[in-house]
Structure formats: structure tokens, C-alpha cells
Backbone:
């Protein structure tokens, strides 16, 4: 740790050191950042060092840029807290009215807990996910088979609608619907929640004009799901969470399901799309690992280049501490940047660690420290990503981007940098949608939906209808 934090563990910031609120900060979210966040991170690092003061939608925060400092913030829970109640600006009512990023932090769930409360909540998650973690258990085997089958169903639907060769958006027509289908299956959503859940999560994840009300509706839907599964337990994550901690209220469980749904869809979905992009754009090391059948390494390499969470959730300083070239005051908010930190790893790899799996496994795609994604969730997420990537390339005889890689539109915000679309020209290999075309497409697309239901996943019947309307404009 630079700055000698160990030598002065409980030091007070010197009186002449600058206070965050007094610094002239530049806004982080600009058109320059949208176009080239890596360039902005590099410029901030040249100007300020490992930690830079920036403005985030009108609020000053510390952006942590270097890998070593990011790891320090993520790992040292005694200094860097997740509970929003540590945030001085919030406690002193210094945030702008209706500041758009605060709503998520006010949802009281595991991600924003510390110490014993956090450990107990993580234990509940781990216990609930354990049946699905083992690929040899009935639940784990069924989930893995279901993910592969859903991927095949979506590719079959694409063939039915667009033919065995044509154009597709692998975001809207494959990755996002796949993750929403998996969420519905894993959470045990009943049929009547399908359309409502998928529509509102879609609006929420895209940050559209209805995102705020949609978030409230999604939270309410998850709370109703918790109540439904309490009355009618099933072989699903919701029921297993209640089994692990029967004291959870419907509202508490709804908040946990809500955040799990966001992470399962947005973070895991971004990891799928970013991996597909690195293969399609011709990243040599990613392609080599895919050709060698090393799907886990393929995902690691893609996450290193483009992490699914560019800038992680705030941490709040429990006390004054020296980080980089600045004294951070107790109660300040810091924003650890995985995307900026990964530039350090890439630079190391380019110099003398090319091909090293040690360097790729050091990526921060799943976080680090006490609040990193739980091991069971990482394993499940990794399984979903590798299955999604593997199945699409199993079915594609040919795929190429229809836009230059540097012209692809990104969802660029304070946390996520994810692709809006991944447009490709494709050719499917033999046997997928063979004979599809003309008026037969509608009938075969309907048959896809029926095959899903006939396989016993009744809760996705309404979901498939909603997805089909989203994917193909209601045709």
C-alpha cells in the first residue's frame, strides 16, 4: 500500500491536506468517457496518480485507478465500508435532490452490509445456492442441462424467424433473453409473473425512461415471488433461501432476489457479450483459448480486457486514511475502477507474462475481498457464461461483426460499460433450423415455445411470449 497506511493505522489527515469537497473536480461521465473510458482513466492517472477526485452526476467522489490501490480498498473491510450509512455526504444531506444513483444504495441487502450481518447473509446465499453448485446433484445437473437447452431453443427461434443465414443482434436475440429465462427458472417464478418480470427487468437494465417505476415494480414482483414460494415451496433458489433462513421476511427476501436478478442478468450478461465480442473482433489470445476448448480461460481473458463491471460499488472510508497521493477523510465515497486497474494487468501481461493464466485469473470480474461474488455464485455464473458462449459457437458455422469494433454502441455509465447491441452476420451449421423459411418460420417459432413448455418448464411459457415480442417486434 503506497503512503504508509500500515505505519499510521489510525492517523488523522493533516490540516493542510485538501478536502474532497474543496477540490475542482471534473465530471467523469462525459462524451469523451463514453467514447474512450480507457483514455480518460489514463489521463486522470497522469494528472493525479493512483487516486483521482472526480464529479459523478454532481457529487464529488474518489476514483481509484491503480490495481494495487483497488485491491486494498476491496480487501480491507475494516477501513473501507459498504454500508451507505457511513457516507458523510448522505448523512449530512449534501447530495442533490433525487440523485439518480442513490436509490440502488438504499435497497438494504447483502451487498451493502458489513461484518457479522454481511457474513450471515452470505451464509444464507451460499447455503441456498449449494444444491445448484454441484453439477452431479439433481438440481445442479438439471440447471446445467436447462441453460444449454434454453440456448439451443433461442438459436432455433432465431433460425425460425431469420433463417439459417442472416443478421442478428446477439444481445437482444440471444444473451439477454437467455439470462432472463435462466432467472425465471432458477428463482421459481410462476407463470403469471413471467411477462411482468421480464418487461420490467428489461426496462430497468436498459435504464430507459421508465426505469425508476420499473425498478419499483420489479422489487414488488420479487416480494410477491417470495410470498408465493413461502406458501408453495419448490426446488428453486427462492425456496432454498427461505429454508436457509426462515426468519427472512418477504420484503427482505424480495430485496435479495431483486439484486440477484440484476447481477445475474446485467453482470453475467455483460460477461457473455464481452466474451463473444473479443472472439468476433479477433482477439488472438481469446481465440486461441476458445480453439483449445478452454472456455473458462476464454472468459477470463475477455473479462481482463473488458470487465463486466467497469467501476464497482462505492466504498466509504471508516476513518481518515492515506490512499495514493491523497488523504481520504472518514465518510468519503471511493469508486474502485476494475476497468482502470485491469490496464495495469494488461501492461504486465504485454511485457513478460503473455499467456499466463495467473495474470488472467487476477481479473476483478467477480470482485475481490470479503464482498467478492460468493464462490457458489461465481461457479454458477461461470457455468452460465461458458455454456452460453460454447453453445452459440457450436451452432455458428460463421459469424462476423457488421460494424467495426470501435463503432459498436456501448451503455456507458458510472458502473457498467456494456454493449447495447452486438450485430453480426451469421451462418448456422447444418441441423439448426434446417428447412426454415417463408411461411414456415412462424409455425416453427411457435413450436420452439411449445417445446420449452413440453419439457416441463411451465413457468417460462409466458416468458417466451414476452421474449418473442421483444426480440422480433411482436411479429
Residues:
Amino acid at each position: 500500500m503506497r503512503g504508509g497506511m500500515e505505519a499510521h493505522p489510525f492517523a488523522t489527515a493533516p490540516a493542510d491536506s485538501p478536502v474532497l469537497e474543496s477540490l475542482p473536480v471534473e465530471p467523469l461521465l462525459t462524451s469523451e468517457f463514453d467514447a474512450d473510458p480507457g483514455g480518460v482513466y489514463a489521463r486522470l492517472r497522469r494528472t493525479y496518480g493512483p487516486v483521482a477526485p472526480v464529479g459523478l452526476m454532481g457529487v464529488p467522489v474518489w476514483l481509484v485507478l491503480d490495481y494495487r490501490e483497488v485491491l486494498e480498498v476491496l480487501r480491507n473491510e475494516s477501513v473501507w465500508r459498504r454500508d451507505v450509512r457511513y457516507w458523510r455526504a448522505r448523512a449530512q444531506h449534501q447530495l442533490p435532490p433525487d440523485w439518480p444513483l442513490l436509490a440502488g444504495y438504499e435497497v438494504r441487502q447483502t451487498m451493502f452490509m458489513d461484518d457479522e450481518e454481511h457474513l450471515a447473509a452470505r451464509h444464507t446465499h451460499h447455503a441456498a445456492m449449494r444444491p445448484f453448485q454441484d453439477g452431479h446433484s439433481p438440481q445442479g445437473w438439471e440447471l446445467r442441462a436447462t441453460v444449454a437447452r434454453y440456448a439451443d431453443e433461442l438459436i432455433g427461434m432465431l433460425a425460425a424467424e431469420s433463417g439459417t443465414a442472416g443478421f442478428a443482434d446477439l444481445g437482444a436475440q440471444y444473451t439477454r433473453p437467455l439470462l432472463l429465462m435462466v432467472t425465471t427458472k432458477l428463482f421459481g417464478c410462476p407463470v403469471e409473473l413471467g411477462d411482468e418480470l421480464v418487461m420490467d427487468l428489461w426496462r430497468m437494465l436498459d435504464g430507459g425512461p421508465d426505469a425508476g417505476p420499473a425498478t419499483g415494480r420489479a422489487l414488488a414482483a420479487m416480494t410477491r415471488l417470495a410470498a408465493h414460494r413461502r406458501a408453495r415451496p419448490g426446488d428453486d433458489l427462492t425456496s432454498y433461501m427461505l429454508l436457509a433462513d426462515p426468519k427472512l421476511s418477504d420484503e427482505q427476501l424480495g430485496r435479495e432476489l431483486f439484486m440477484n436478478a440484476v447481477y445475474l442478468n446485467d453482470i453475467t450478461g455483460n460477461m457473455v457479450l464481452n466474451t463473444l465480442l473479443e472472439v468476433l473482433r479477433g482477439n488472438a489470445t481469446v481465440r486461441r483459448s476458445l480453439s483449445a476448448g478452454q472456455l473458462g480461460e476464454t472468459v477470463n481473458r475477455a473479462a481482463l480486457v473488458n470487465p463486466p463491471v467497469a467501476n464497482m460499488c462505492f466504498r466509504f472510508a471508516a476513518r481518515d486514511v492515506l490512499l495514493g497521493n491523497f488523504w481520504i477523510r472518514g465518510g468519503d465515497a471511493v469508486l474502485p475502477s476494475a476497468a482502470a486497474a485491469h490496464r495495469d494487468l494488461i501492461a504486465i501481461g504485454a511485457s513478460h507474462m503473455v499467456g499466463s493464466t495467473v495474470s488472467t485469473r487476477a481479473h476483478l470480474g467477480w470482485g475481490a475481498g470479503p464482498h467478492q461474488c460468493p464462490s457458489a455464485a461465481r461457479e454458477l455464473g461461470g457455468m452460465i457464461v461458458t455454456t452460453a458462449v460454447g453453445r452459440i459457437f457450436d451452432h455458428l458455422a460463421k459469424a462476423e461483426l457488421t460494424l467495426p469494433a470501435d463503432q459498436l454502441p456501448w451503455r456507458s455509465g458510472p458502473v457498467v460499460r456494456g454493449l447495447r447491441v452486438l450485430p453480426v452476420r451469421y451462418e448456422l451449421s447444418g441441423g439448426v433450423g434446417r428447412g426454415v423459411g417463408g411461411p414456415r418460420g412462424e409455425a416453427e417459432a411457435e413450436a420452439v415455445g411449445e417445446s420449452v413448455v413440453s419439457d416441463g418448464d411451465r413457468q417460462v411459457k409466458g416468458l417466451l411470449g414476452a421474449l418473442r415480442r421483444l426480440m422480433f417486434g411482436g411479429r
Remarks:
- Confidence is low (pLDDT under 50) at residues 1-8, 351-358, 433-463, 465-475.
- The two ends are 58 Å apart (CA to CA).
- The first strand starts at residue 26 and ends at 27.
